[in-house]
Design a protein that fits this description.
Layout lengths: L2 H13 L2 H12 L3 H15 L31 E2 L2 E10 L2 E7 L9 E5 L10 E4 L7
Antiparallel strand pairs: 1-2, 2-3, 3-4, 4-5
Helix pairs in contact: 1-3
């Protein structure tokens, strides 16, 4: 049995109106009952309209709406040593960077980095770094 031949004949049968399909199959299949049964099985499967594909996609209705809200950052307001975390100033693949306040008259700008590691909310992971221009 040539599968390619079945595919071609199946395509040709689909193009015919339902009333002409039986006569077409008799003409092209002749005495080959196996070929005819295989094409008729393909037709039956093709015309079956049940399950998820029975309804057009445009008619599908949404079942729920999900709204994502921003989770408050628990790091803001924490005190780490002499620094109090004021706000988040950036975030990347390696963690978040925060702006701390020292409370003294120091003019040096610092940043605190919260790394993405186990216990990243602990004081060990949240450390003041040197000046803002420092890459480390």
């Amino acid at each position: 049995m040539n599968v390619n031949r079945e595919e071609v004949l199946f395509g040709m049968v689909l193009e015919k109106p339902a009333s002409e399909r039986d006569a077409f199959l008799k003409a092209v299949c002749g005495d080959d009952t196996t070929l005819r049964m295989r094409i008729e099985a393909l037709l039956a499967a093709h015309e079956q309209t049940s399950g998820a594909l029975a309804e057009p996609a445009a008619a599908a209705k949404a079942t729920m709406k999900i709204e994502f809200t921003e989770v408050p950052d628990e790091t803001i307001g924490q005190k780490i040593g002499r620094y109090k975390i004021l706000q988040k100033i950036g975030e990347g693949g390696c963690g978040a960077v925060y702006m701390p306040y020292c409370g003294s008259s120091a003019t040096r700008k610092v940043a605190c980095k919260n790394g993405r590691e186990v216990g990243s909310n602990s004081a060990d992971a949240l450390r003041p770094r040197s000046t803002l221009g420092h890459a480390g």
